[in-house]
Specification:
3 helices; alpha+beta; 119 residues
Length: 119
Protein backbone atom coordinates (compact mmCIF):
# COMPACT_ATOMS: atom_id res chain seq x y z
CA UNK A 1 0.00 0.00 0.00
CA UNK A 2 2.78 2.41 0.91
CA UNK A 3 4.45 1.59 -2.39
CA UNK A 4 1.35 2.57 -4.37
CA UNK A 5 1.06 5.92 -2.55
CA UNK A 6 4.76 6.66 -3.07
CA UNK A 7 4.54 5.73 -6.77
CA UNK A 8 1.48 7.97 -7.28
CA UNK A 9 3.21 10.86 -5.49
CA UNK A 10 6.31 10.41 -7.66
CA UNK A 11 4.17 10.48 -10.86
CA UNK A 12 2.46 13.66 -9.70
CA UNK A 13 5.79 15.37 -8.96
CA UNK A 14 7.24 14.33 -12.35
CA UNK A 15 4.12 15.53 -14.19
CA UNK A 16 4.23 18.92 -12.44
CA UNK A 17 7.97 19.36 -12.97
CA UNK A 18 7.77 18.48 -16.67
CA UNK A 19 5.09 21.07 -17.51
CA UNK A 20 6.53 24.61 -17.58
CA UNK A 21 4.51 27.22 -15.75
CA UNK A 22 3.57 30.21 -17.91
CA UNK A 23 5.21 28.85 -21.04
CA UNK A 24 8.62 29.68 -22.50
CA UNK A 25 7.24 31.76 -25.37
CA UNK A 26 6.54 34.79 -23.18
CA UNK A 27 10.13 34.69 -21.91
CA UNK A 28 11.45 34.78 -25.49
CA UNK A 29 9.22 37.74 -26.32
CA UNK A 30 10.45 39.57 -23.22
CA UNK A 31 14.10 39.02 -24.23
CA UNK A 32 13.44 40.29 -27.76
CA UNK A 33 11.74 43.41 -26.41
CA UNK A 34 14.61 44.06 -24.00
CA UNK A 35 17.18 43.71 -26.80
CA UNK A 36 15.19 46.12 -29.00
CA UNK A 37 15.12 48.70 -26.21
CA UNK A 38 18.86 48.36 -25.57
CA UNK A 39 19.54 48.68 -29.31
CA UNK A 40 17.45 51.84 -29.62
CA UNK A 41 18.88 53.50 -26.50
CA UNK A 42 22.55 52.49 -26.67
CA UNK A 43 23.81 50.88 -29.85
CA UNK A 44 22.07 52.98 -32.51
CA UNK A 45 23.13 56.41 -31.13
CA UNK A 46 26.73 55.21 -30.86
CA UNK A 47 26.70 54.06 -34.49
CA UNK A 48 25.33 57.44 -35.60
CA UNK A 49 28.07 59.25 -33.68
CA UNK A 50 30.77 57.05 -35.25
CA UNK A 51 29.33 57.71 -38.72
CA UNK A 52 29.40 61.51 -38.15
CA UNK A 53 33.02 61.28 -36.95
CA UNK A 54 34.08 59.26 -40.02
CA UNK A 55 32.37 61.80 -42.31
CA UNK A 56 34.09 64.66 -40.49
CA UNK A 57 37.51 63.04 -40.96
CA UNK A 58 36.95 62.44 -44.67
CA UNK A 59 35.68 66.00 -45.28
CA UNK A 60 38.43 67.68 -43.26
CA UNK A 61 40.29 70.33 -45.27
CA UNK A 62 42.93 73.01 -44.86
CA UNK A 63 42.12 75.82 -42.37
CA UNK A 64 39.57 73.75 -40.41
CA UNK A 65 40.00 74.26 -36.66
CA UNK A 66 40.09 70.96 -34.79
CA UNK A 67 40.73 69.38 -31.40
CA UNK A 68 42.86 66.27 -31.02
CA UNK A 69 42.01 63.47 -28.62
CA UNK A 70 44.78 64.75 -26.32
CA UNK A 71 43.21 68.22 -26.22
CA UNK A 72 45.51 70.10 -28.59
CA UNK A 73 43.73 72.88 -30.50
CA UNK A 74 44.98 73.63 -33.97
CA UNK A 75 44.26 74.63 -37.52
CA UNK A 76 44.64 72.04 -40.28
CA UNK A 77 47.60 72.96 -42.46
CA UNK A 78 47.75 69.83 -44.63
CA UNK A 79 45.77 66.60 -44.93
CA UNK A 80 47.30 63.36 -46.15
CA UNK A 81 45.78 59.90 -46.22
CA UNK A 82 46.54 58.99 -42.61
CA UNK A 83 48.42 62.05 -41.26
CA UNK A 84 47.24 65.59 -40.61
CA UNK A 85 49.58 68.54 -40.12
CA UNK A 86 48.24 70.99 -37.56
CA UNK A 87 49.40 74.53 -37.00
CA UNK A 88 49.12 75.09 -33.24
CA UNK A 89 50.83 78.51 -33.18
CA UNK A 90 52.45 80.84 -35.70
CA UNK A 91 54.90 78.70 -37.69
CA UNK A 92 54.61 75.82 -35.21
CA UNK A 93 53.34 72.69 -36.92
CA UNK A 94 52.86 69.17 -35.67
CA UNK A 95 51.88 65.99 -37.43
CA UNK A 96 49.21 63.77 -35.89
CA UNK A 97 47.41 60.68 -37.06
CA UNK A 98 44.07 61.42 -38.64
CA UNK A 99 42.34 59.13 -36.16
CA UNK A 100 43.67 61.32 -33.31
CA UNK A 101 41.44 64.20 -34.44
CA UNK A 102 38.44 64.00 -32.15
CA UNK A 103 36.20 66.85 -33.26
CA UNK A 104 35.97 70.27 -34.83
CA UNK A 105 36.93 73.07 -32.48
CA UNK A 106 33.86 74.27 -30.55
CA UNK A 107 32.50 77.43 -32.13
CA UNK A 108 34.53 77.08 -35.32
CA UNK A 109 33.10 77.31 -38.84
CA UNK A 110 33.68 73.61 -39.53
CA UNK A 111 31.58 72.68 -36.48
CA UNK A 112 28.72 74.91 -37.61
CA UNK A 113 28.75 73.47 -41.14
CA UNK A 114 28.82 69.88 -39.87
CA UNK A 115 25.89 70.60 -37.52
CA UNK A 116 23.84 72.07 -40.39
CA UNK A 117 24.47 69.04 -42.61
CA UNK A 118 23.14 66.70 -39.87
CA UNK A 119 19.76 68.45 -39.72
Amino acid sequence: MFTLIAAEAARTVVAQAGAPQGGGFSMIIMLVVMFAIIYMLMIRPQQKQQKRHREFLTQMKKNDEVVTSSGILGKVFAVEETVVTLEIADKVRIKVLKQAISSPRPGSESEVSSDESNK
